[in-house]
Amino acid sequence: MDAAAEAGAWHPEGDGYVPKAGDGVVVLGDNHIVIADGNGGYTGANSSTGVVAKQSITGDFGAITGYVDTSKLAGISGGSTYSQANAKALASSNLVAEAKAKNEEVYQKKLEEADRNQKIRVRKMNEEISKLDLERTGDRLQLIKAESEAQQAQIDDNIL
Q1: Nearest-angstrom CA–CA distance, 129 and 18
Q2: N or C terminus: which one in the chain shows less Cβ crowding within 10 Å?
Q3: pTM
Q4: What is the pLDDT of residues 47-87, one digit of tens each?
Q5: What are the b/e assignments for 48-87, b being 16+ CB within 10 Å?
């Protein structure tokens, strides 16, 4: 932050500065920095999730410490031409593409897991209904067979 301040690029939160796509956003005190997308979202990275693109800086980090006007650090005078070029470069960058691909991969895995869990729940409900029917009719042999099949299905669920 000191180098940014010396270059006139540092803007503490609340000074009226509106971050442009590509600007640095300092969060978590001064412990983390993400890249603004110009619309309130960001691209960032950490060791557990890798590169991500998210919709809300404040939604994920809470209070913002301040902004770094990267155009001033790069020696480019600010302006809308720079902002538009920077936004286009950011949108088409490999980081954003990687983040979108990673987010899609995580989404697909969660969707598959939810589908699998739903199938297990439906199977278990059907097993319970069958057991109740067999108990009601008194067919002990079929009840034992149904319980055995249910146990095998549960083992199969845990293996998959």
Answers
A1: 61
A2: C
A3: 0.47
A4: 677 777 888 888 888 889 999 988 887 654 444 455 555 55
A5: eeebbbbeebeeebeebbbbbbbbbbeeeeeeeebbeebb
